[in-house]
Amino acid sequence: MSTPLPTATVPLPAPLTTRTPSDRQAALARCTLLRPPIEDGVPLARVAVQCGRELRTLQRWLQAYRRPGLAGVARAPRRDRGTRTLPTALVQLIDGLALRSPRPTAAAVHRQGVALAPTQGWPVPSSSTVYAIIRGLDPALTTLAHAGATAYATAVDLIYRRTAARPNDRWQADHTPARPVGA
Asked: What is the pLDDT along the chain (183 residues), one digit of tens a residue?
């Protein structure tokens, strides 16, 4: 008796409901191009010439459509979306430069980061990456760094000073005895 050959399982793409409206519209446009070959038997080569797409692209879209349907034709999001590839030391340097007083502009922090990165062997950060790092700083920390301790105490500390770790951790009540009603 022979053993069955191992088969590679291809993971199904995320459903269209998790995609952006523009991704859904693009998937629908791709399916519209694929409809004549699927329904009417029109050769893909003819559709490729008519729509100005490469034949191999249409073949890939058709293969993706036949597996999971419309969701397969939608463009897959990047796997590294939301992750940063910069070294931690470079991110800390950008944080430190952004927290100096007086408040520097994002462009000034970017220029300094671009000048220092090659000397340390780090990749050069883009201006949008530097801006995203600065925007991600804690507002309380930026208030303390740029406006000082007094502004921090009035703007931030009052909000978070009396937060409780668990229910009834902090409790206040008026400890004067209540007068009886009608007395």
From this structure: 556 655 556 566 777 778 888 888 988 899 899 999 988 989 999 999 999 999 999 999 998 888 878 888 888 777 777 777 889 999 999 999 999 988 899 999 999 999 999 999 999 999 999 999 999 998 888 888 888 877 777 776 655 555 566 776 665 555 556 666 766
Q: How many domains does the chain have?
A: 2
Q: What is the CATH number of the domain that holds 117?
A: 1.10.10.60
**Assigned domain for 59 exists:** yes
Q: How far apart are CA 5 and CA 139, in angstroms?
A: 57
Q: Does the pTM exceed 0.85?
A: no
Kindly report the length of the chain.
183
Q: What is the DSSP string of 68-120?
A: TTHHHHSPPPPTTTT---S-HHHHHHHHHHHTSSSPPPHHHHHHHHHHHHHHH
Domain holding 98, by residue range, is: 88-160
